[in-house]
Design brief:
about 675 residues, Cobalt-precorrin-4 Transmethylase, domain 1, Methyltransferase, Cobalt-precorrin-4 Transmethylase, Domain 2, Rossmann fold, 5 domains, five-stranded parallel beta sheet, 31 strands, about 30% helix
Amino acid sequence: MEQGKVWLVGAGPGDAELLTQKAVRVLQEADVIVYDALVGQAILAKLPEEADKIYVGKRSSHHAMPQEEISQCLVRLAKQGKNVVRLKGGDPFLFGRGGEEIEELIRGGIDYEVVPGVTSALAVPAYNGIPVTHRDYCSSLHIITGHKRQGQPLRLDYEALCRMNGTLVFLMGVAAAPEICRGLIDAGMDPQMPAALLSQGTTAGQRRLVSNVSELPQRMQEEKLPTPAILVIGKVCALAEEFAWVEKLPLAGTKVVLTRPRQRMERLSKRFRALGAEVLELPSIRICPISETDRLQAALEQIEQYGWLVFTSPSGIDVFFERCLEYHFDIRRLSAIKIAVIGSGTARQLEQHGLYPDLIPQEEYSAAALGDALAKQAGAAEKILIARAEAGSPDLLARLQKDFIHPVDDIAIYRTEAVDRESENAGFDLTAMETLAEDERAVFVFTSASTVRGTVEKMTPDVRARMRVVCIGERTEEEARRYGIAAQVAEQADEDSLVEAVVFMDQMQIHKGRPENETGRTETEIHVYDFLDKLNVAYERIDHEPVETMEACQKIDKALEPAVVCKNLFLTNSREDQYYLLMMPGDKKFRSSEVARQIESTRLSFASAEKMQEYLEIMPGAVSVMGLMNDQEHHVELLVDEELLEYEQLGCHPCVNTSSLRLWTKDVLEKFVPATGHSFQTVHIAN
């Protein structure tokens, strides 16, 4: 058996775009990838599906595999004839124990190469606006390990470090930071010397804490930034706020999870990364050409009989032309045929083959719209060839045959299959996917109903309910809703609108549940979250400025879609001895007499702000059904417009007008309202 080879590859600090070109090439050629805990999620998601992956991660005091066994594992795999990549965070030779592994490879007679990586000692400060050298501040840089053996002090020459008067970067130094800062001060460093802790640099979780060497340990105790993190000490740390640039990008701090087939990822990934997002490429489906049928080949042999050729996806175009190549079909025979496509993305893919569509729906990109447009354009005698997915939308044929029976050959040329995450995506088994789904920074992007199913089918309902999701169109959103997921929908079924929807969601960030930091929030608002949590009612939250204009209202309404945003009116009868809270869709007009007649009341009018405060503990501008929890003596009756019952979700304020909630309608009316001791009466309000 021919012996294999080992490549020691540096993965960089986490940002997938900091992976070197050589590293990308070597990874694509690997049979086995042995990776550690510091390899970024975005890089793990891009590892080739066909390679075997072995996790050997080491975190402080927790080793999946001892170093000696890792080195022996590399030798063993290479002797089995495998091309092995040892993938390490940062650079393999900078405190990465790469030298020890090479010694073992030499003893085993194994060929090897080293692919350097971008070290976090340089990249993470740069991403935080800290230049590790600056002619006005320092003339040297020192990279030091902060790792120490358990129970032993660090063996550092603090006096020498102080004398150098340069920038000090400590890797793996979080646990030892108090000892390091104290040692430097005792050795003569100015206690006011700027210092920074940089957490999860170059990823969506990037955070920094800038202080000085005397105060930093206490600040670290208070803020508890997560690892991995590096410690930077030196005058250049004072430049962080002025030079910071990452947080100015539109999607900084956001993880965008793409779920479409891998061959369709690249273009969309680049767009999101350019906006500052950390992109995780986690295809939930793969495209599988259907080769067991000769229907397409038969159609191509008689292609001149067709007047129209129809494509409903970019993947369909790719498979079609792959089949043309396989069948030795001369595409010049398509010259007399008109081509219809479902949208701009499919048109763009068609252009890659030197062809341009004759028909694209104008109003919306959907199977129904394509069917309507084609039915108007196609002549009665023109035969239509549709080349699409096996589970294509029935709307296309239904609309196409609505008024006239056009002759159609609808040929399935590919099917989609779910990706087995357990075996093909390193570090992304079901547990990891559910953790990602609950991450407030993560936005899942779905481009088809099958990507929804492939991603969430095995997740628990509670996890699904907490996901942040953007869908490319209504059919995809319907599938998400079937799994209990509330999703934003792109204005158009194309990539431009999809990107805009993610940016909008990030700007109007939707949080799952109560705020982590409750400082500055009113007791009334916190009481709402306590009440909902006690009932185990799921809710999402948007924080915003006080709503004072129609434009601001519309922006919040859009962010809360598909929930209906309620208009809540606090009313009283003419004798002012009975009070009502009326919930109705925000776009309806209130007619006093119409409601009064149905509840057999005297004339209704708006009740005073004083009574609103007394009974519901709410000020005008924040009226909400949530106020009923404060009406313990049941002075207020709840009226609900029957149209609200048709909506699965509704939006309301948590008794303040600086936040808005999205809740399931059923939870509000069947859990929350009864828990307050109230019931409700439905009324009919005409449009």
